[in-house]
Amino acid sequence: MAKHTQEIERKWLVRDLPRLRQLKHEQIIQGYLAISSDGTEVRLRRKSDNYFETVKSQGALTRDEIEVNIPQKQFHTLWPATQGRRVKKNTIRIALEWPST
Q1: What DSSP designation does 77 have?
Q2: What DSSP designation does 70 have?
Q3: How far apart are alpha carbons 45 and 32 in whole angstroms?
Q4: Active-site residue 32, yes or no?
Q5: Which of 3, 22, 67, 85 is the least crowded, having the fewest Cβ atoms under 10 Å away?
Q6: pTM above 0.70, yes or no
Q7: Rounded to whole angstroms, how far apart are CA atoms 11 and 73?
Q8: What are the distances in angstroms from CA 58 to CA 62, 65, 66?
């Protein structure tokens, strides 16, 4: 089933980082099948035992994103096409506490 969302890019200036190695993280590998000159991209991504193909529209701060779960076999069939355009990263979720106004 496809998931259609809108991605909003946000950045924060953080005073102090927590001890990141102690926090639970999730490793992600992703490779890009296509990146157009207007910023549209098609990528493959593996998170744990879940596999996705994602299309992101052009845009700077806001972009449309369609993400589809794909079978592991399809991921591995397409993966060689991402050679030279791959990223491995760890994501960490940190709860934020907003200051009172």
Answers
A1: H
A2: -
A3: 9
A4: yes
A5: 22
A6: yes
A7: 36
A8: 8, 10, 12
Task: Give the end-to-end CA distance of the chain in Å, rounded to a whole number.
Answer: 41
**Euclidean distance between CA atoms 76 and 44, whole angstroms:** 10
Full DSSP string of 7-48: EE------SS---GGGS-EEEEEEEEEEE-TTS-EEEEEEET
44 Ramachandran zone, left/alpha/beta (phi>0; psi -120 to 50): beta
User: Pairing state of beta strands 50-56 and 41-47?
Assistant: antiparallel
Q: Which of 28, 30, 32, 74 is catalytic?
A: 32
Q: How far apart are CA 30 and CA 99, in angstroms?
A: 35
Residues 6+ apart with CB under 8 A from 57: 39, 40, 63, 64, 65
Q: Give 50-95 pLDDT, tens digit per residue.
A: 999 999 888 777 888 899 999 999 999 999 999 999 999 988 877 7
Inter-residue contact 43 to 30 (CB < 8 Å): yes
Q: How crowded is residue 31: how many other Cβ atoms within 10 Å of its Cβ?
A: 20
